[in-house]
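QUALITY CONTROL LOG
STEP: pairwise intake check
CHECKER ROLE: data steward
CRITERIA: each record must contain a sequence immediately followed by its structure tokens, with no blank fields

ENTRY 1 OF 2
RESULT FIELD BELOW
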Amino acid sequence: MTGFLASDPVRVALVVGAMAAVVSGVVGVFTVVRGQSFAGHAFGDLGTLGGSGAFLLNVNPLWGFVSVGAVVAGAMELVGVQRRRGRDVATGIVLGAALGAAALLLYLDTTRSSTTGAAVTVLFGSIFAVASGSLPVMAGLAGAGVLAVVALYRPLLLSSFHPELASVRGVPVRAVTLGFLVLMGVTVSLTSMVVGTILSPALLVGPAACALRLSRRPGVAMVLAAGIGLVVTWAGIALAYASATWPPSHAGWPVSFFVVALVFLAYLGVEAGAAARG
């Protein structure tokens, strides 16, 4: 661990991880409350389409993740997400329609040059390779995500638990739903930079699920989820840095593995505590 904080890539990784963890915790609570964890998983899978497309065009993968997240959110709303059953059907239709395109783009990435590492970077993340120039954009997206949840807190809360009552009270439920889907897409885009597209839903859903077991108040749960996400992300970065000398390859283990493993352990711990309390 010598020189951990002296390393520029590590410092950038810690900042990127913190931003992704905080916005994931805040957005993740409403993702779980609204029963849209499957949609979060779909955004992660479909982020592969944006990331691989960005590599093919030789642009920052973040822009690919974000653009596809916004487009997919709109497609889900267009297909129909007014009821939970409709959300699942719409998510499945969009997911199935786009994964084939993602596979094609990844194939083109890997066959164009065997040294791009596009598949590994997109699927499993490469937080130590994030350019410091991406920080202002990521900070803007993360800050906008948190502010959006704060601004929409009451409509989101009412439409999450009582959509019919929200509609009667004049809340534009469909617009709120679309806005939240776009927000989820952007959030998963940020987490994809940390743990890759395959595992990004774990950082969105896991800390939020833990927090909601600790507190039933959404506001408190968001703070707890952000804190849990921050701890597991920073711990995952530290463990990945320390693993540079670990067997079998002595080349380091991926950050994504440690982050997801710690999220899983945190959830088991919370569940065990809840069971002990009866």
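ENTRY 2 OF 2
RESULT FIELD BELOW
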Amino acid sequence: MRIALITRDISPVRGSEASVSWNFVKEMSRHVHIDVFYAYHPVEIEQYEGEHGPLTNVVWHAIPIESCDHIAPGLKLDYYYSLYYHRWHKRVYQAILNEVEAGQIDLIHYLSPIGFKEPGFCWKIKEVPYVWGPVMAVENRPFSLYRTYIFRAKVSAFARRIVHNGLFRYMPRVRKAFRRADAIFAATPNAVRLLKKHHGKEAIYLPENGVTAMERTTPISLFPGQDIQLIWVGRVNDENKAIGILINALTKVKSNRWHLHVVGPGELRPDLAHKAVAFAEHITFHGKLSRSEVQNLYSSAHLHIISSMGEATTTVLFEAMAQAVPTLTLDHCGMSGVVCDRCGIKIPIESYDKVTSRIAAEIDRLIAEPERVEHLSAGVIECTDRFLWRRRIPLFLDTYRRLILH
């Protein structure tokens, strides 16, 4: 089968959506021919293939996004909303249309970014099947946790809630793209529900990423009296990652037998930095690290913590699972569909005080009952089998074959 894959970001050395796309191409190219239409990081792909050899069955079509520096020098514009990203999709559409008309493509798959706000134009091509996703719908950031935001971020989150819900339900091009899609993969359980409710589409639940291989196959142990090693990974100054929820929770932890490793660029805002000073000896800020360095930290951790206010299924969750590290997370977004009671801890979305108190109580409980860490780690090893990449391949292949045949 010859697949045209649309992805903005792809890289063998980056995380997030670049990792989603790279894992897809690397794993699926063993079974289908893939023409990859992408925008970012061609040098990193060339370096990888120079060291490891070219990926078989893959043809790279680099289509750069035009620079907007001449309009706003130094300003980081969000291409989701910019004219330039819109134009990029038009160029991708024309390039793929040429391939389809030449009989070189059997199916189009729009993989990434996972957001719905820019559906592109390839859904207009009727000659071959069209697949979209895993796509994220609208993961509203809980009102009860807005307290973690500064005022500007509160206004932004509230405006985003209104705008994104409106675009998802009523934007004409989004509605047409959803209606046209022959198959849709939904990144979160909530996306499955919203696609059915607002667009009448039956979607296949599939988190946007998965585990390529288990790096650890024996459970982690926390010994009595040992400090529990906590790890948090993300952009520290990203309001959506909401490290403030964790910092405030740690002020309520009764035990002093814990150490937090914070991995990611940026600095705490002043009010959080002031709180963190009180237990500075318990927190190490590592800054931005390479993926291999992050993996080393995971391998010595006992608990991974996600405090994100709203996203799909963050890649760091699967990186932790590959190291058999259980995750403590808020019970929403994509994490709610991956983490269960056997392999992690889900914090119900209640009031801000209840959420931070519950996080603190769960950390204290693990310190008091260290055998629970090993129990949860064993659960991670068991549950991860469902999210291994080799489990995803038959789903994609069966979907492709069914659509092409019909």
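INTAKE CHECK: passed for both entries
DESCRIPTIVE NOTE, ENTRY 2: The mean pLDDT is 92.
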